[in-house]
Give the backbone structure.
Amino acid sequence: MTIPNDEVGSILLEMQDAGMDLSQPVVVEFFQLFEKKENAKALADYLSSQVDILDVKLHPDQTPEVWDVDCTVKMIPSYENIVAKEAQFEKLARQYDGYNDGWGVHFADDESA
């Protein structure tokens, strides 16, 4: 698998170097930020109704007057899949006057088994 030399690619290479099999599904968390709680809640409510979303959390950000909507998706963490899902979340967040703020991976406690 060829991984481009950019921010997404760097994270994927770190995951691969840490021993993750990038051809297997993992839980990926995507982050959206909002200045208005009602906008964040509206997106959180929408995402909660989507079949492919495992979990949605709405909480205050570390920055005052900013709200986070974090949601998890189980997916194969290929470069193409991550970039496409980030674009999807960016488009959704903008519809609610927010923006996508990146992603991360949840490491399961039993991955070494």
Remarks:
- The radius of gyration is 15 Å.
- Residues 109-113 have pLDDT under 50 and may be disordered.
- The longest strand covers residues 26-34.
- The CA atoms of residues 44 and 50 lie 10 Å apart.
